[in-house]
Amino acid sequence: MHVEGQASQDLEEPVLILENGEVYRNPTEVKMSQIVLPCHANHRGELSVGQLLKWMDTTACLSAERHAGCPCITASVDDIYFEHTIGVGQVVNIKAKVNRAFNSSMEVGILVCCEDLFSDRQWRVCHAYATFVARRTEAGKVQLKQVVPRTQAEQVEHSVAAERRRMRLIHHEIMKDLLSTLQKVDECREFQDTVPAEKTQVESVELVLPPHANHQVNTFGGQIMAWMENVATIAASRLCNAHPTLRTIDMFHFRGPSQVGDRLVLRAIVNNSFKNSMEPRTLPRIKPEPVNGKRRFQEAIARKKIRLDRKYIISCKQTEVPLSVPWDPSNQVYLSYNNVSALKMLAARNNWVLNSEKHKVSLYTLEENQVLCFRVETQVDVPAEQVFLLMSDLSRRQEWDRNYTRCEMINQADEDDKIYRVVTPSVSKEGKDQDFILLASRRRPCNTGDPFVIALRSVTLPTHPPTDDYNRGEVLCAGFSIWEVSGATTKISYYNQASPEVLPYISTDIAGLSSSFCSTFRSCSQFLEENKDSLGALASTAL
């Protein structure tokens, strides 16, 4: 199979031609195209967000059911950032496909683009992820078949979907931990001209009719999202005395289904207002209502913090993220996510070039957009689980890697995330040694066939600022993918997106002037062989 040209503006993936000459199309992919009519628009002549959400949910549900082969229900929709509005007369193109299936749930990626028929232009409007659950059948609970990714983009989404699922499952704990660190609301409401939150309160009752239901007689998730968007917009309008535009949706979470004939009560209230939420109008401050207003006020602050972390650390491209992001407990989950997903995306690239090979140790390079990445790969006769435990204890790396002269753990965020200070020798005779502050994040396989992952990236800690004695180095993306080849054989792949501080350690190998990478990984193999039986003592200290 081979890949041919990419469509304009990067709205479409490269075309994959199969061996039989046919064009590959993801079997779960569903497309919907709708022309925006006046009945779909708001007072500004723009497609209402509620209508768009209904179309998105319908498309995603069809994709999920195509994969599951049975009825599916919407469990959640998250991370929607509306980049542009869509006007009357323009065409909405929606594409949905299943990124990954778990036991009975699956993640569906949704891409929305706008097309102008007169100028022949297309642009991206938003991207979202929806989770669908396969409904039980008469035979019992459905066990979904696994998604087999074929293209590089599918491999990336499939790999990172496991990390996104992990974040959804711990979202409640993130909120709980963040709320415990916030100051009390009583101390921060001394502003004048505040607006009572009760003024913005909205309540609306909707009767679920047959047009609101799907083929399972359950209310469309998209319809419920549209009703929620409606009451939220009214509440926001009452605060600002204007017509606000919805820009971001953090997450819709559905607790259970509703059916035709049900009465749904929708309530909305402005929990908090922030200085720059609307331009050019300055929003008035909110005075929390006396009953549950203080709790909701605090939760709004916590959600804003989470939203900024997700947008800053997760949603932007890897090349747009600063090398060292400040670490603190409130953004720990998102830095860990970025750390692991960046490595998974690098590992999923398929255009690596074999640079050299010696003693069954291979060195690959990848050069794109003026960024050089390298990969070192070998196999060892040690079970993957033991390799993972030994190599995830970064403090022992100096036993086999001569580029690690000292490594100490300085912060243990949790069982799977630790921060280390690493000292490496100077690349010149008269230069200073370098030190790095590295976040090490490890992950076990989510499914059979997945690798163990140990991801590394630079972070900053106020307790360990740069000093005059060392040159502070940076690591953007590095780490290990550990694959089980057989019960006793493991493939180890080391990846590094070379920064200026890292490149001197590998440049002579890449240029063919030395083969130090080979000796380093032979030392690694020897270290693993010698210590594979010592894991009893290691288990309590491993990362």
From TrEMBL:
One GO BP annotation of this record: fatty acid metabolic process
HotDog ACOT-type domain residues: 26-138, 198-326
Residue ranges occupied by any START domain in the UniProt entry: 352-530
Catalytic activity: butanoyl-CoA + H2O = butanoate + CoA + H(+)
UniProt pathway: Lipid metabolism; fatty acid metabolism
Keywords: Fatty acid metabolism, Hydrolase, Lipid metabolism, Repeat, Serine esterase
SUPFAM superfamilies: Bet v1-like, Thioesterase/thiol ester dehydrase-isomerase
Keyword Lipid metabolism assigned: yes
Keyword Lipid metabolism applies: yes
One GO CC annotation: cytosol
Listed Pfam families: 4HBT (PF03061), START (PF01852)
SMART domains: START
Molecular functions (GO terms): carboxylic ester hydrolase activity; lipid binding; long-chain fatty acyl-CoA hydrolase activity
Protein name as annotated: Acyl-CoA thioesterase 11
Source organism: Albula goreensis
